């Protein structure tokens, strides 16, 4: 009963409510992208990005950092990346291979969860390179949408968005490799103590 109350209390914090709002906007955003309403999709993404900034800022400012918030924030980031990839690939705004490259890294990391769980560990902390890669991707995709909305400026926006995308993919995978190495170190250390 104590755990449920603590979870309920965590849900009631302003930062976590903002994270929940951001999560609720994911399907709205995806529908807007799929129906090629790029302007509204971009506005939705801007609102979601603002809540992303605010939830972290307020969590620190109000001393309301929670375990739930630490899970909701990266989950929302991943869902926005996934929704954007699906929407842009289906509408033909990005090559079909791009979602597979980005999602492939997350699948690889998901495969490490059972290994960690076997030795009593949860997911390991996110590496700063992973955060930098996510940051770059979260810049690349709105810029790709902006290029669809503001077509006369595509000659500037598209190279910039693809630069962010390529850097994001590189950092995303580099952090993934480092994460897998860290998982194997933790598992090998745990086996020594068994």
UniProtKB/TrEMBL annotation:
The keyword Membrane appears for this protein: yes
Membrane topology, as annotated: Multi-pass membrane protein
TM annotation in the entry: 14-34, 40-58, 79-104, 124-146, 153-174
Keyword set, alphabetical order: Lipid biosynthesis, Lipid metabolism, Membrane, Phospholipid biosynthesis, Phospholipid metabolism, Transferase, Transmembrane, Transmembrane helix
Subcellular location per the Swiss-Prot or TrEMBL entry: Membrane
Gene3D superfamilies: 1.20.120.1760
Entry keyword annotation includes Lipid biosynthesis: yes
Biological process, per Gene Ontology: glycerophospholipid biosynthetic process
Entry-linked InterPro entries: CDP-alcohol_PTase-I, CDP-OH_P_trans, CDP-OH_PTrfase_TM_dom, CDP_ALCOHOL_P_TRANSF_CS, Phosphatidylglycerol_P_synth
Family per similarity comment: Belongs to the CDP-alcohol phosphatidyltransferase class-I family.
Name of the molecule in the record: Unannotated protein
